[in-house]
Write a structure and sequence with these properties.
The complex is a heterodimer of chains A (331) and B (77). Chain A has six helices and 27 strands. Chain A has 331 residues and is mainly beta. Chain A folds into two domains: 236 residues, no CATH class; 73 residues, no CATH class. In chain A, a hairpin with a 3-residue loop joins β4 and β5. Chain B has one domain. Chain B is globular. The chains are: A mainly beta (331), B mainly alpha (77). The interface between A and B is medium-sized, with 27 and 24 residues.
């Protein structure tokens, strides 16, 4: 499977050859591409095969999925239509989604995705498009439907892919974080922010709790979904006021603050060993901008994984500070 | 691989939390992370049946997935 950085000219050639592509790069680059069987999202951060973590504003990260594509259709969903993402395109082998960060589609998917009709009836993987951190507030993340060439900043783009006969795909995650030994935290409402938290069943102001306990907000909240550890990353803490997150907390889910991670590479390696992945069958992977920043991944490799560094990762639902990947298998 | 019918009591054992397994299929784990708590809090026949329907559907629709197949072996032997 081909995953690497290419110039616009090289990507144009792939598109002309009729290849099926998942693209990540700067808006100005994606806007130059001809129509074809591709979808894309904006981001200038990557883990590349040659350099590891890198910022590139003149090349596009290409994931060529031609070998696992018998046919594909691309759909654009607004916040009200996203609930059909599992029921549209019946017979597809998997669906690949890209959402623009902070868009209505992003917020809607984050909050409602786990309750979509027929949740999980096919693999759903993808990522949240972003911008260079120096452009926050100046540029907007965008997603592209290559079949029309159109760019969107409010909607999600999804490629529904039918697999060739004899192929199957699996979606997985690598999360270096695990629940710490501290308090059990629950929330009274679903949302990207909160004022109060229930600490072992007792209500208090969450910002004050964070301050009093000197919680490191670079470490996420971690929920245990039947053994799958799902992170909620902190965006900001307003003393005495709101705490904001990069993904929503949900009522009924028990969260704990993560254990400290002193060495990303060592923790990553340990989780990789536990996953028993050989890396040979990986079709796509992406990792979180917060892992890139907090673990200083620039110039570092995360073999066998490469791919865009994103403002959110999607493996059936929105995740934070997590590497997601898709493998292909012969059946 | 065939997925055991919904009438197999092992499905209800899973969604009620009466039996727990170390599973691999991510979609099922995410689903179970929610439904086991919901069903445990209110284990009415309707809630159990609804949860079994959802879990069965996920495995049936993903029956060709290696991780789903491993889970079926783990749960049903």
């Amino acid at each position: 499977m081909q995953q690497n950085m290419y110039s616009v000219v090289e990507v144009e050639k792939f598109i002309a050859e009729g290849r099926t592509l998942l693209l990540a790069g700067e808006e100005a680059l994606l806007r130059q591409l001809p129509k074809g069987q591709w979808i894309g999202g904006t981001i200038p951060y990557f883990i590349t095969p040659s350099e590891g973590g890198a910022v590139s504003q003149d090349k596009i990260f290409v994931t060529d999925i031609t070998a696992v594509t018998a046919s594909a259709i691309t759909s654009v969903y607004d916040q009200n239509g996203l609930g059909k993402v599992y029921t549209d395109a019946e017979g597809s082998g998997f669906s690949f989604i890209i959402l623009p960060a902070t868009s209505p589609a992003h917020a809607s998917f984050a909050l409602n995705g786990p309750n979509y009709k027929d949740f999980g009836n096919r693999p759903l993987i993808g990522w949240v498009a972003g911008v260079h951190l120096s452009d926050l507030g100046k540029a907007t993340p965008k997603v592209f439907d290559g079949s029309s060439g159109a760019a969107y900043e409010q909607e999600a783009v999804v490629m529904h892919v039918t697999l060739p006969p004899g192929k199957s795909v699996d979606v997985g995650i690598i999360n270096i974080f695990e629940q710490g030994d501290g308090d059990m935290l629950t929330f009274a409402a679903d949302g990207f922010s909160c004022t109060d938290v229930m600490v072992n069943g007792v209500k208090e102001n969450f910002a004050e709790y964070i301050t009093r306990n000197n919680l490191d907000t670079k470490l996420p909240l971690v929920a245990d979904y039947y053994g799958a550890l799902v992170n909620i990353s902190f965006q900001s803490v307003d003393p005495g006021g709101e705490v904001k997150f990069y993904a929503p907390v949900f009522t009924g889910i028990h969260y704990k603050h993560a254990k400290a991670v002193s060495n990303y590479a060592a923790s990553f390696g340990e989780q990789l060993r536990k996953s028993n992945l050989d890396g040979q069958n990986i079709v796509f992977s992406c990792n979180c901008i917060l892992n890139y920043l907090y673990s200083e991944l620039e110039g570092r490799k995360t073999d066998p994984f490469v791919g865009p560094i994103t403002f959110g990762e999607i493996a059936y639902q929105l995740l934070n500070q997590t590497l997601v990947y898709m493998e292909v298998h012969d059946i | 691989m065939s997925v055991p019918p919904k009438s197999n009591p092992r499905w209800a054992d899973v969604v009620t939390g009466r039996k727990t397994y170390t599973l691999k299929f991510l979609a099922a784990k995410i689903l179970l992370g929610r439904v086991v708590r919901t069903v445990s809090a209110a284990p009415t026949p309707e809630n159990v049946r609804d949860a079994v329907d959802q879990l069965f559907a996920i495995y049936e629709k993903n029956a060709s997935s290696p991780s789903a197949q491993e889970d079926i072996k783990i749960i049903f032997g």
